[in-house]
Amino acid sequence: MADEIKMKIEEEQEGTQVYSVPFPKDLSQLKDMAPIVIKFPWQVDYIHSYGQDSPWFAGVSNKKLLATKCMDEKCGYVCATPRLACPVCGKEMDWIELPQQAKVHTFTVCHFGSETFLPECPFVLALIEWEEADTLFLTRLLGVDPLKPTLDWIGMKVQAKFLRLSKFKPTDVYFVPAE
Ligand SMILES: [Zn+2]
Predict the structure, then answer these.
(1) In-domain check, residue 69
(2) Does some domain include residue 46?
(3) How many domains does the chain have?
(4) Has residue 91 been placed in a domain?
(5) For 114, how many CA atoms within 13 A lie in the half-sphere containing its CB?
(6) What confidence tens digit (pLDDT) does each residue in 136-156 have?
């Protein structure tokens, strides 16, 4: 029994390793000590389910833009940003395909963004509208100069573009002015 009781923790070679940390003889100097800062690599495998939004991502990876349409004939509400329960009547919605040409409803120029978008700043975020849909779709608008924004962009015809290598993210699709 005594053999099974651990007396020592095994040393590991992983993580932060520190050697020869300076230490004052006079403990009163410790309050002036600079903070210790450590840096170490950190990786997590994040598992995230797209759940009922999965068909939308399957769509963009196949260069198709999907929306959902209320199955109630009288309602028929269409969400360009899909959801499976109708926000108007609560009935179930069906998947439909949206045209890849649409119009700019409105836009903003972002001079700051989250980490992913920082290298792209300034960039244009636009709300896209379809005659076939009742809600708008938030996306990036490329092919215009973000430093020369003009109200002429509102109502402009735009064309969907898709990343060739899908990342399974909403940013797999963006829009450019239609030719
Ligand atoms: Zn409905």
Answers:
(1) yes
(2) no
(3) 1
(4) yes
(5) 1
(6) 999 999 999 999 999 999 999
Q: What is the whole-number distance in angstroms between the Cα of residue 126 and the centre of ligand 1?
A: 26
* Whether residue 57 has pLDDT greater than 80: yes
How far does the centroid of ligand 1 lie from the alpha carbon of residue 94, in Å? 11
Residue of 163, 174, 123 lying closest to 144 (CA atoms) = 123
**Ligand 1 geometric centre to CA of 91 (Å):** 5
- Centroid of ligand 1 to alpha carbon of 75 (angstroms): 5
- Residue 27 falls within a domain, yes or no? no
Burial class (CB in 10 A: 0-12, 13-18, 19+), 67: buried
pLDDT digits (tens, 9 = 90+) for 5-41: 988 988 888 877 888 888 999 999 999 999 988 888 8
Enclosing domain of residue 96: 52-177
User: Ligand 1 centre and the CA of 70: distance in Å?
Assistant: 5
